[in-house]
């Protein structure tokens, strides 16, 4: 991102602030060409502040309320941070149960992103009527696929309910472990439902692969194809991990930039920049500085950082993913197009389903020893989990009585912030054409469609909260080098 | 020879009822198999009539009276659920919610909270009164227990439990008006009060998540309001060998 533009004030209607509307500004250079794009997040929620003064044991319950789509991610990150404040290791059964819960969560969230939110773009066409370009339109056009996708999400949601007592905002993971073991009924339920879920993702991979080979070639090139770092958790053998392990960063050539990093020291390698025009923070990899230290997290990053997934079907799909999306420069090892996030989600669903099948056969998950008890032993701790959208950090400091004095949460969507802006700029450059833009330049509808689809590659929470109801409310402004607004297009 | 107390006859919601002459209207209501909601009342502790949820209408009496501190009388005609009473009860519960900072979603007592239960019982789906969002704090200085003033409704069950059953009198009520709060010792951090025996009876008596065990996370509190009555009865009946 360039930073030569003079700061300016953008007036944001308070109605858009509360309704979750997105706003994007496209910034031109002196010659009238796109230099920069800014994806503005104008909602402020203040969780980090109002957690102060609360007992740390409540943090899992409080932070799970941040999101209705991925409450499990916050629950697990908070519980892991709580483990460290108690200075205990959860029993082995509890660690496996937490992993199982996260697998179910990634499965349901990815199914939501792929089938409900994004597949209408691929299957119904980018320029089809936005009012029908949603899951309901998909139901009309391809009822079998839509039904299967909805059932796949249901599988993940119901597994969460089976384990934790409720689908959304279950407070089942606690500092020291979890509340209850897996029941034999849940094992039987998993065995009964798993084949259908596997068939669904097999079908989705087939459909998506066909689309990639035919009409999605352009999107693969244009939707956020650029060099960046990638970050995610891997286990001690470098395999894909969703909850336990160390952090690894790789670059676009496939070189490991940093490995074996502990979340405890995140502040030594991750910085958080703040821009006056967005409430979303801008994390970056410190050794490269801001904004050069841009990195991506989430399904694409997790597949890029791992050596292998560790289960046979998922490893075969990973190989196919790399053959399809890997760059020549990296020897086919690294996918740099943000459009590959969609493909990566499907591969991760395969990984989740295989791992769920394995864990269902593990009798240890039915052990009654699922919680370690202790009182407060540490004053500061950092917990990490891989949320569906990427690595999630919870960092708490507490006083001698265990009351929170400081909270820092680093959310996946924030870590993809720089990359989302880069993606929007790339899409705008391509679809607005090479000619210089001047006052009154038209922002075509097709650009709006591509921009929202480009953002949706990252599956930011914003798309969850607004897109499912029909279309994503969007406002795009074209701004010249002096900060003057040249054109605007709004879709409510 | 056991002295037989005289009894009185009264009518509750049209139903005839006979109880001991020193019984409260609340006891009479319950002995007739009827129900009025309560929050500050706890069997085994001295009633104080603080929460006003058990208000009843007495025919021929000019004002509403709390059933828990009103003694029965011969020929009394009691109504427990008139539209006026139901309106007042709902208003009282709404005021409890508006006065404190009650966030059920992550409360330790979620699902096992008497305030939550009465809100459901009186049909409260929102508060018509503006929330006060008072600035309060959590006292987590005790090694085992915590006191979250945000959730305290000043029912004083903890004060009476500690004084009448445990005999330690750690708790009291301090300050006035909207600043009124439960205080430990001489308004000290709970963990510094030497009189506290760490028995946990106050936590058992608390109807909300205000008093809690520090190990408990969201929705994990297991209240034991029955213990006050059990302990009071055991003491009265001399069930302990050293009595």
From TrEMBL, chain A:
Pfam families: NiFeSe_Hases
Required co-factors: Fe cation; Ni(2+)
Annotated keywords: Iron, Magnesium, Metal-binding, Nickel, Oxidoreductase
Matching SUPFAM superfamilies: HydB/Nqo4-like
UniProt GO molecular function: ferredoxin hydrogenase activity; nickel cation binding
Gene3D superfamilies documented for this protein: Cytochrome-c3 Hydrogenase, chain B (1.10.645.10)
Annotated positions binding Fe cation: 70, 464
Residues annotated to bind Ni(2+): 67, 70, 461
Domain of life: Bacteria
Family in the record: Belongs to the [NiFe]/[NiFeSe] hydrogenase large subunit family.
Name the record gives this protein: Ni/Fe hydrogenase subunit alpha
Source organism of this protein record: Cyanobium usitatum str. Tous
């Amino acid at each position: 991102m360039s930073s030569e533009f003079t700061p300016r004030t953008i007036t944001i209607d308070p109605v858009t602030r509360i309704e979750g509307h997105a706003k994007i500004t496209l910034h031109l250079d002196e010659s009238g060409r796109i230099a920069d794009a800014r994806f503005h997040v104008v909602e402020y929620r203040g969780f980090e502040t109002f957690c102060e003064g609360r007992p740390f044991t409540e943090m899992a319950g409080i932070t799970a309320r941040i999101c209705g789509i991925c409450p499990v991610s916050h629950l697990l990150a908070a519980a892991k941070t709580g483990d460290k404040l108690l200075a205990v290791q959860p029993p082995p059964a509890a660690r496996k149960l937490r992993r199982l819960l996260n697998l179910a969560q990634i499965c349901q969230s990815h199914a939501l992103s792929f089938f409900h939110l994004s597949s209408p773009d691929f299957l119904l066409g980018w320029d089809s009527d936005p009012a029908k370009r949603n899951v309901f339109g998909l139901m009309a056009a391809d009822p079998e696929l839509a039904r299967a996708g909805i059932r796949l999400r249901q599988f993940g949601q119901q597994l969460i309910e089976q384990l934790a007592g409720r689908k959304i905002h279950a407070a089942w993971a606690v500092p020291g472990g979890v509340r209850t073991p897996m029941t034999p009924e849940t094992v039987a339920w998993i065995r009964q439902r798993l084949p259908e879920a596997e068939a669904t993702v097999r079908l989705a991979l087939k459909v998506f692969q066909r689309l990639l080979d035919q009409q999605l070639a352009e999107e693969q090139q244009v939707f956020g194809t650029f060099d960046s770092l990638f970050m995610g958790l891997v286990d001690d053998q470098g395999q894909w991990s969703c909850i336990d392990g160390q952090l690894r960063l790789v670059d676009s050539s496939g070189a490991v930039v940093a490995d074996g990093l502990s979340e405890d020291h995140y502040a030594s390698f991750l910085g958080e920049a703040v821009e006056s025009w967005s409430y979303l923070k801008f994390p970056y990899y410190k050794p490269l500085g801001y904004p050069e230290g841009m990195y991506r997290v989430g399904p694409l990053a997790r597949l890029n950082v791992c050596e292998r997934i560790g289960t046979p079907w998922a490893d075969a799909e990973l190989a196919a993913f790399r053959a399809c999306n890997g760059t020549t420069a990296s020897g086919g090892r690294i996918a740099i197009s943000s459009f590959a996030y969609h493909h990566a989600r499907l591969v991760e669903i395969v990984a989740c389903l295989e791992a769920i099948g394995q864990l269902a056969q593990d009798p240890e998950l039915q052990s009654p020893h699922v919680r370690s008890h202790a009182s407060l032993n540490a004053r500061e701790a950092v917990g990490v989990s891989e949320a569906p959208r990427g690595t999630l950090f919870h960092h708490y400091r507490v006083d001698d009585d265990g009351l929170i004095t400081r909270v820092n949460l680093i959310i996946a969507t924030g870590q993809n912030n720089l990359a989302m802006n880069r993606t929007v700029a790339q899409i705008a450059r391509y679809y607005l054409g090479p000619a210089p833009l001047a006052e009154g330049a038209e922002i075509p509808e097709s650009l709006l469609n591509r921009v929202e689809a480009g953002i949706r590659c990252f599956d930011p929470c914003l798309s969850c909260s607004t897109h499912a109801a029909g279309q994503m409310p969007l406002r795009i402004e074209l701004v010249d080098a002096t900060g003057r607004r040249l054109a605007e297009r709004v879709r409510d | 020879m056991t002295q037989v107390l005289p009894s009185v006859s009264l009518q509750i919601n049209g139903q005839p009822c006979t109880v001991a002459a020193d019984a409260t209207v609340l006891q009479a209501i319950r002995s007739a198999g009827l129900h009025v909601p309560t929050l500050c009342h706890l069997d085994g502790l001295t009633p104080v009539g603080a929460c006003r949820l058990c208000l009843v209408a007495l025919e021929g009496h000019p004002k509403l009276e709390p059933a828990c501190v009103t003694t029965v009388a011969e020929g009394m005609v009691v109504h427990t659920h008139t539209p006026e009473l139901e309106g007042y009860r709902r208003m009282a519960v709404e005021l409890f919610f508006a006065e404190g900072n009650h966030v059920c979603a992550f409360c330790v007592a979620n699902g096992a909270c008497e305030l939550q239960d009465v809100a459901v019982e009186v049909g409260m789906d929102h508060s018509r009164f503006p929330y006060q969002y008072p600035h309060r704090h959590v006292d987590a200085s005790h090694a085992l227990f915590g006191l979250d003033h945000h959730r305290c409704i000043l029912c004083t069950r903890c004060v009476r439990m500690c004084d009448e059953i445990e005999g330690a009198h750690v708790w009291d009520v301090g300050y006035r008006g909207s600043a009124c709060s439960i205080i430990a010792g001489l308004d000290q951090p709970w963990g510094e009060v030497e009189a506290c025996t760490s028995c946990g009876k106050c936590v058992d008596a608390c109807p909300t998540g205000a008093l809690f065990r520090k190990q408990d996370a969201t929705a994990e509190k297991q209240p034991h309001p029955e213990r006050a009555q059990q302990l009071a009865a055991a003491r009265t009946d001399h069930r302990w060998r050293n009595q």
